[in-house]
Amino acid sequence: MRQGKRERLLGAAIELLHQEGVERTTLADIAHRAEVPAGGVYYYFKTKDDVVTAVIDAHAAQVRANLTEIESRHDSPKARLKALVEQFASQRELIAEFGCPLGTICSELGNRHLETSPAAVLMRLPIAWMGEQYRALGRDDAEELALELMAAYEGSALLANTMRDPSILTNAARRITRGIDAL
């Protein structure tokens, strides 16, 4: 069954904001990709900022769902952290081509002159979750380790995208996993 118009518009917005960026993507581009008449966008989203908010909310919901799935499949904190790293690395081809879906929107929106980026939640969710895993391992430096893991991933994602080399993420995942095993 074909998705409803709002779902198609949101799916198109998620893809386009990742591939083209927030500033370069127009509401008309989103309508075209979703196969919805251009005026139909305004029925669901009044402004481009409304679209961006919906994309951030959709990404946040997906992050929560991914973390919940990891928790349901893995019993130990180490296994959970390694599963998250594996999940990051599984996107290596897409990331090499377009950048990290979360990191790119966070970076672009972070450049706006706002006190706090509306996309910051997309980094805070996995960092907080990783911190919980490290605390469960008895680490007093859980927050620092969580930030380091996210920085290692996002830095590798940036390099993989800049150099168009997915192996950078594969190698980073291997190093991060060895670090988790060493805990």
Automatic annotation (TrEMBL):
PROSITE patterns: HTH_TETR_2 (PS50977). Keywords: DNA-binding, Transcription, Transcription regulation. Pfam families: TetR_N. Signal peptide: none annotated. Residues 26-45 bind DNA. Residues 3-63 form the HTH tetR-type domain. This is TetR/AcrR family transcriptional regulator. It comes from Actinacidiphila acidipaludis.
